[in-house]
Amino acid sequence: DAAFHRAIRTPVTFVPAPTLGDEDVAPLLPGADAIVSKRFTPAMAAAADTLRLILTPGAGTNQIDFAAVPA
């Protein structure tokens, strides 16, 4: 966490979810501008009312439900 905060120059609030499950991630998304996750689901999209960025670290997009990504 400390290295992440040192690397970010824009003020942010970093809120880690205990798991990647919808039940842990979705409640954190209302009001969020961005999500850093290897997956994105319809439940997350429904909760993400102000989301502008989905960042998936690593390679591949097989965990991203593109039908759920807002246009």
Name the features.
71 residues, single chain, alpha+beta, 2 strands, two-stranded parallel ribbon, 3 helices, globular
Molecular structure report:
The protein is an alpha+beta fold and 71 residues long. Helices cover 23% and strands 8% of the residues. The protein has helices at residues 2-7, 22-25, 42-47; strands spanning 34-36, 53-55. Strands 1-2 form a two-stranded parallel sheet. Helix 3 links the parallel strand 1 (34-36) and strand 2.
Short description:
The chain is globular and about 35 Å long.
The shape is: globular
Low-confidence stretches: none
Radius of gyration computed on alpha carbons: 12 Å
Contiguous helical run count:
3
Indicate the mean pLDDT: 88
How many strand segments? 2
Return the structural class.
alpha+beta
N-end to C-end Cα span: 31 Å
Q: Describe the sheet with the most strands.
A: 2 strands, parallel
**Strand order in the largest sheet:** 1-2
Q: What fraction strand?
A: 5-15%
N-to-C series of helices and strands? HHEHE
How helix-rich are the residues, as a percent range? 10-25%
Topology:
Elements: H1 2-7, H2 22-25, E1 34-36, H3 42-47, E2 53-55
